[in-house]
Design a protein that fits this description.
Helix 5 (about 145-165) crosses helix 6 (about 170-185) and helix 6 crosses helix 9 (about 260-290). The protein has 14 helices and 8 strands. It has about 525 residues and is α+β, with helices and mostly antiparallel strands. The strands form 3 sheets. It has a 4-stranded mixed sheet. The protein has a two-stranded antiparallel ribbon with strand order 4-5. Strand 1 and strand 2 (about 55-60) form a beta hairpin. Bound molecules: protoporphyrin IX containing FE. Protoporphyrin IX containing FE (HEM) binds next to helix 3, helix 9 and helix 13.
């Protein structure tokens, strides 16, 4: 483009229709595929726009590093999400850490979240993951056809337990997570794409009315959960959880009070559900579609864990399991468009101009299909981390492969805070599944033929999971079946007793103190 003063070069990109840009032919479904198709025409960094918002799409890891990591100082803001109230917390709403602008709320909540998650990781999640994995396996025995619900419920229960020591509302909380995920996704309400619709007056604005209800219910729940914990704490009846830790330290944190604390804690729980459940869905599909890898993982677990269900301590001894998990995340990246960063100042890259306010999209789908790094990228090859001839092979195998550091977790100052939790939960859950069950395609009882699993169909929200499919779970042996039942009975009984004992001694202490 030429101006009167100087030549300003811009990145190439598809032809832009005045005002609307390229919104008319950008499909809402599988948007990442269209972005990737354009990358093949316009190169590893190109630009497009939608209703005045400029997008710069990156499909080369090095360019993403150059901008989002090396120049993080001005590349770490977030774009506004139209269909949420004050998603960036510009006006002090303090509600959605991952969506906040680079402001003081983001900075203190990021520190808070990092510290709470690190503490949980260092304490191996207080045994919560092993406990929920045992429940999950037992549920699969009782009703294997409901496996999708069980796995999402496991992810939800783990987060609810860690944050509030209460898993009773986990199914409802999964629904809440779905509500927020839909609301923030380009493929959610139409107001995220045709943004001016959001400004219609309230009486003729169904989107704003619906969001008001969703938002208020979510905030009320978060506050109720915090207040419940405070009431228990006052009676000495609160067991360990993130909310209790906050309440015991509230005077020394730099959060502004209960509203902010309930939001940052509630958000931590929400964000940990579909991020982990999505890869779990795909892992199941991978095991059913690749029985040879399932067998290798099972043999590794049997040998290394001497017959017991694996725990986190076994992770270094289980490179094949880790390879299958990492390859699942690569094969079916669950945040395929990446999460956009917004640029805070005008900048130049490779001689091209990047205007302040541009949205930078690190297209994870493209990173994961880089044929130089991941040859035969559309197929499932865990051996790419286990055999020296592949470019991704890395030693020591006690540590690598690992999901930590994958491009899927984003870049720079905004990089995901849940990498260890994801790593650990996938090891525990996938390890437990392979230990307990043979996972297979289901047989149609009428035709006697296998029911195909279509892993190319998914939703198109920011965090993706496959469309529901059917598959079969068979306990590997009769002994294993008994063990699954037994280990859950023991764990559940112990949990009930511990809770009752805690309450008894809390009540006794309370009476003594009161007297
Ligand atoms: C496979 C699992 C996961 C994937 C692929 C994933 C991916 C991402 C991505 C792409 C971002 C944005 C990074 C950027 O802007 O550059 C992000 C941010 C974040 N993630 Fe994750 N995530 C996962 C699991 C989790 C879990 C389990 C938690 C916590 C329980 C979590 C907590 C967060 C938080 C708090 C942020 C916001 C960071 C910020 O904005 O400063 N994530 N994640």
């Amino acid at each position: 483009k030429k101006t009167s003063k100087a030549k300003i070069y811009e990145f190439p990109g598809p032809y832009q229709v005045p005002y609307i840009g390229r919104i008319h032919d950008l499909p809402i479904q599988y948007m990442w595929l269209k972005f990737y198709e354009w990358a093949k025409t316009y190169g590893p960094i190109y630009q497009t726009s939608m209703l005045g918002a400029k997008f710069i799409i990156i499909s080369d890891e090095k360019i993403a590093e150059d901008l989002l990591v090396k120049r993080a100082k001005i590349y770490s803001d977030r774009p506004q999400i139209r269909s949420l109230f004050d998603a960036k917390s510009t006006y002090g709403s303090m509600e959605y850490l991952p969506l906040m602008g680079r402001n003081k709320y983001w900075s203190r909540q990021r520190r808070f979240t990092h510290s709470y998650l690190t503490e949980a990781t260092n304490n191996q999640y207080y045994g919560v993951m092993n406990f929920e994995a045992k429940r999950f396996l037992n549920n699969l025995l009782i009703n294997p056809d409901n496996f999708g619900f069980w796995l999402e419920d496991m992810a939800s229960k783990i987060m609810c337990q860690l944050t509030w020591d209460d898993t009773s509302f986990s199914a409802m909380y999964t629904q809440n997570a779905w509500g927020l995920l839909t609301q923030m996704s380009p493929a959610g309400p139409i107001t995220n794409l045709i943004t001016p619709l959001w400004e219609l007056p309230i009486p003729i604005n169904p989107w704003k009315k619906a969001e008001r209800i969703r938002h208020d219910e979510q905030q009320a729940l978060w506050m109720k959960l915090l207040l419940n914990t405070r009431a228990k704490l006052e009676k000495g009846e609160a067991r360990s959880c993130f909310t209790k830790t906050y309440l015991q330290n509230e005077k020394t944190t730099n959060l502004s009070g209960d509203y902010e604390a309930s939001s940052v804690i509630g958000m931590m729980a929400l964000v940990g559900i579909f991020t982990v459940a999505g890869p779990l869905w795909y892992f199941l599909a991978a095991m059913a579609l690749h029985p040879e890898w399932q067998k290798r993982v099972q043999e590794e677990i049997d040998e290394q864990c001497e017959g017991r269900m694996p725990t986190l301590d076994d992770a270094p001894k289980l490179p094949i399991l880790r390879a299958c998990i990492v390859e699942t995340l690569r094969w079916k990246p669950n945040v395929p468009t990446g999460v956009a960063h917004e640029v805070e100042a005008d900048d130049w890259y490779n001689g091209c101009f990047i205007a302040k306010g541009s949205r930078i999209l690190p297209l994870d789908w493209a990173f994961m299909h880089n044929e130089d790094k991941y040859p035969d990228s559309y197929n499932y090859h865990p051996e790419r981390y286990l055999e020296e001839k592949w470019p991704t092979y890395k030693e020591p195998l006690t540590q690598f492969p690992t999901v930590k550091g994958l491009t899927s977790f984003g870049f720079g100052q905004r990089q995901c805070l849940g990498q260890s939790l994801t790593h650990d939960e996938l090891i525990v859950a996938c390890g437990a599944l392979c230990w307990g069950f043979n996972m297979k395609k289901k047989i149609n009882p009428k035709t006697g033929k296998e029911i195909e699993i279509d892993i190319n169909k998914s939703n198109s929200l920011l965090i993706v999971k496959p469309d529901a499919f059917q598959m079969a779970f068979e306990p590997r042996t009769q002994d294993r079946r008994k063990e699954i039942v037994h280990q859950w009975e023991v764990a559940e009984k112990k949990d009930i007793e511990e809770r009752a004992e805690f309450l008894r001694s809390a009540k006794a202490n309370f009476v003594t103190v009161a007297a």
